[in-house]
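Customer escalation, tier 2.

The customer says the design service returned an amino acid string that "doesn't look like it belongs to this structure." They asked us to rerun it and document both sides in this ticket. The original C-alpha cells are below, unchanged.
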C-alpha cells in the first residue's frame, strides 16, 4: 500500500505547456484529492481517489484495506491469510489503528490470520512508487477538469502497471 505525497491531484488541472491560461481556472477553489494504491499479489493494482478532506493516516489506510478485499472477492474470492506490506511512512501507516483493524478482520472471520510488515526507508521501490511517479509527470501534461476524467485517465495510464480498478472513495 502506498500513496504519493505530492499535491498534483488538485482539479482542475490545465496542461502545463499551454500558453493561454484559461482565466476562469485561475481563482476558483480546487477539488483537492488524495490517491492511494494497493498492489495485491496475484491480482494487480487497485487505486483509490478521494477528496483531500477525507483525510489521510489510519482512516484512509483502513478504508482502502477494507475496500480492496471487497473488490478482489468479487472477481476471485479471498484466501485465508492477509499479508500487509506497508511503505515507510509512519504518519500514514505504522500505527496501532491499522494493526487493530487488521486484527479485527481476523476476529470477524474475514481471514484466518494476518501479518503486518513495514519496509525500511529507502527500500520501497515498488511498482506503486514507480507508477505514481510517472503518473504525476504525465498528469502535468494533461488538461483534466473533473473527477471522472481523472479516474479514466488514471485507469488508462496505469493499465501498463497492471491496474485492476480505479475507484473514487466518498
Amino acid at each position: 500500500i502506498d500513496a504519493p505525497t505530492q499535491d498534483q491531484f488538485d482539479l482542475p488541472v490545465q496542461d502545463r505547456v499551454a500558453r493561454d491560461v484559461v482565466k476562469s481556472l485561475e481563482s476558483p477553489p480546487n477539488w483537492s484529492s488524495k490517491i492511494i494504491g494497493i498492489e495485491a499479489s496475484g491480482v494487480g493494482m487497485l487505486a483509490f481517489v478521494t477528496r483531500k478532506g477525507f483525510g489521510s493516516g489510519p482512516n484512509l489506510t483502513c478504508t482502502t484495506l477494507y475496500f480492496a478485499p471487497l473488490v478482489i472477492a468479487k472477481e476471485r474470492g479471498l484466501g485465508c491469510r492477509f499479508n500487509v506490506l506497508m511503505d515507510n511512512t509512519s504518519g500514514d501507516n505504522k500505527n496501532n489503528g491499522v494493526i487493530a483493524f487488521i486484527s479485527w478482520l481476523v476476529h470477524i472471520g474475514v481471514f484466518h490470520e494476518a501479518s503486518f510488515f513495514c519496509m525500511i526507508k529507502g527500500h520501497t521501490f515498488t511498482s506503486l512508487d514507480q507508477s505514481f511517479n510517472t503518473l504525476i509527470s504525465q498528469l502535468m501534461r494533461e488538461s483534466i477538469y473533473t473527477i471522472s476524467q481523472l479516474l479514466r485517465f488514471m485507469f488508462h495510464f496505469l493499465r501498463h502497471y497492471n491496474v485492476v480498478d480505479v475507484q473514487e472513495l466518498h
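Tier 2 assessment: The sequence is consistent with the input. The two ends are 19 Å apart (CA to CA). Helices lie at 57-76, 96-107, 127-139, 147-158. Sent an explanation to the customer and offered a walkthrough call.
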